[in-house]
Amino acid sequence: MEGAIKFEGVSAGYQDRIVLNNISFTVNQGEFVGVAGPNGSGKSTLIKLILGLVKPLSGKIVIKGYNTSSSIKKIREKMGYLPQKSNTDPRFPVLVKEVVAMGMYSTIGMLRHPGPEHFQRVSEALRQVGMGGFEEHPFGHLSGGQQQRVLIARALVNNPDILLLDEPTTGLDHFSQTRLINLINDIRLKKNITVIMVTHHLNQIYDLAGRIIYIDEQKLTIDNPESIIGQYLGGNQYA
Ligand SMILES: Nc1ncnc2c1ncn2[C@@H]1O[C@H](COP(=O)(O)OP(=O)(O)OP(=O)(O)O)[C@@H](O)[C@H]1O
What is the ipTM, given to two decimal places? Predict the structure, then answer.
């Protein structure tokens, strides 16, 4: 079976700095894979390689059968992305429906206005994350947890096969973190989406993620949570 995401001998880095050296792995459709490792080890770089925002120095990346070096537009249509959190100015005058509609720019184009059929998709994505009815609310007036759910709706609005989440629970209280992760997992199961989620808190996903990617010192290991925690975190999932 062709994997949803396949890395073959990939090296990547910036200027004269190698971040990932000769890594290979395959993720299957519908898997929930966590991405962990120390600060600066290359977790976001891995996500950006999958998105085609960072180009490999050598090796090959194939997403749903398409090579990132030649078919990046096709691949982007299949992916939803929630970047690392940046704080939104509460006075920023943008409505929830406009934030979600931004997720469709890759398919409808930046300069075209979204039509009624697009806003139907926006409402559907908001319903999926439990934010139906919030279309006309100012984004900046929502709580942190609600804002993250709206940003997940933005990542889901194109019906992606792959959802890439870079520390989606940052800044949320413990209860909201658990709720958000359970929500992501429910959507994954319902739609058979592949979820790749960067987190500093493996305990959050220990029971849900089938496998964890651990990155350190230019190397990548992929294995079940128990084994990764045993090998790298001294057996402590809360480390
Ligand atoms: N655009 C860039 N130009 C140069 N160096 C970069 C760039 N982006 C990242 N780096 C460097 O590459 C390394 C990996 O960064 P990356 O952001 O992938 O790490 P990370 O594991 O996501 O870190 P964190 O846990 O702090 O979010 C770091 O040393 C970082 O300084």
Answer: 0.97
Cα 67 from Cα 183, distance rounded (Å):
31
Same domain, yes or no, for 9 and 54? Answer: yes
**9-18 pLDDT, tens digit each:** 999 999 989 9
Instruction: Indicate the residue type of 88.
Output: T
Q: Cα–Cα distance between 26 and 222 in angstroms, integer? A: 9
Tell me: do 167 and 213 sit in the same domain.
Answer: yes
Residue 124 CA, distance from chain mean position: 20
Q: Is 48 in the pocket of ligand 1 (CB under 6 A)?
A: no
In the chain, the number of structural domains is 2
pLDDT digits (tens, 9 = 90+) for 34-78: 999 999 999 999 999 999 999 999 999 999 999 998 888 888 888
Dihedral sign, CA of 175, 176, 177, 182? positive
Give 44 Cα–ligand 1 centroid separation in angstroms. 7
